[in-house]
Amino acid sequence: MTVRIGTRASKLALTQTQQTADKLAAVGGFPVELVHIKTEGDVKTGSLSQMGGTGVFVAALRDALLANSCDVAVHSLKDLPTGAAVGLSIAATPQRVDVRDVLCARDGMTLAELPGGAKVGTGSPRRAAQLRAARPDIEVLDIRGNVDTRLGRVPGLPGNPTEEVVAGKSCDLDAVVLAAAGLERIGRLDSVSEFFGTDVMLPAPGQGALAIECRTDDAPRQAGNTEGSNGVLAQALAALNDDDTRLAVTAERAVLARLEAGCAAPVGAYAFRKGSMLHLEAVVCAVDGTKTVREKKATDGLTEVGATLLGIEVAELLLAAGAAEIADLAAS
């Protein structure tokens, strides 16, 4: 049995999928094969938020699973819509890596050191809103492209292929904001000038985590459930799952689901287990950064149901504090 693993063809997607494939093969003892899937987000240009947010990278992979063109798909978990996909299951969430957002700025500057009017690029309304809240005097610009392309917009960063200033292409920005996890996976953490604390910038729900998705019939069978499988693939997937990561991202995604927030809504959330408690903090920002609502709560209910309820409770606190009034939560 060769397990076919669907992936986007970007450098980051291929890297994290290959790492996952190697672990699956080692645990399951079966050969694996990567299947490249072209998604709408890889083909179209323009603002990511206007195309439906990061969910545009997911649909084609899910279609490939349902069409039996691959057996497993590896997603950045923050890209997954919160709604269930009929016939598919998140079979595993491996141990999460660094959840933080980072600044990659010219001359090694931090956010506080950037001059007024500095141009900072990001494709995320969540990051843009929190940047504007922290530094209302800078210019935040919407950018697209893979990680290397975005880093190439900042002069002087290690690994950049050119120092030529070309508007919209290279060396034309003072900084960009990216996820630490992605930079770590492709070996470009040397471009980071500042790691943002969650007090400055809460990450996207699921950031730093991967979701391994498969057809429900092939997913690990849960106790007391007739769905799923006890086969070799299912057992290998179950071995890659990290329970604490699963609880954390379940709580974070429950915030999004209760807020009925679209992919482009300026919402951040971060949950983590400490001892016998699961802690969750979430934020909703006005896109222009002028208003912010932030709430936190903890639970000792260390189950997926408990994590979901925690997310719902924090979302209710956000709504009661006026989250729906300051941001377009339905933004797609």
TrEMBL record:
In-chain residues carrying the UniProt-annotated modification S-(dipyrrolylmethanemethyl)cysteine: 263
Enzyme Commission (EC) number: 2.5.1.61
Domain Porphobilinogen deaminase C-terminal: start-end pairs: 247-319
Top EC group: transferase
InterPro entries: HemC, Porphobilin_deaminase_cofac_BS, Porphobilin_deaminase_N, Porphobilinogen_deaminase_C, Porphobilinogen_deaminase_C_sf
GO molecular function: hydroxymethylbilane synthase activity
Pfam families: Porphobil_deam, Porphobil_deamC
Domain of life: Bacteria
Keywords: Porphyrin biosynthesis, Transferase
Catalytic activity annotation: 4 porphobilinogen + H2O = hydroxymethylbilane + 4 NH4(+)
Cofactor binding description: Binds 1 dipyrromethane group covalently.
Cofactor(s) for this UniProt protein: dipyrromethane
Gene3D superfamilies: Periplasmic binding protein-like II, Porphobilinogen deaminase, C-terminal domain
Residues of the Porphobilinogen deaminase N-terminal domain: 3-219
Other facts noted in the record for this chain: The porphobilinogen subunits are added to the dipyrromethane group.
Role description: Tetrapolymerization of the monopyrrole PBG into the hydroxymethylbilane pre-uroporphyrinogen in several discrete steps.
Subunit structure: Monomer.
Protein family according to the UniProt entry: Belongs to the HMBS family.
Protein name: Porphobilinogen deaminase
Designated gene of the protein: hemC
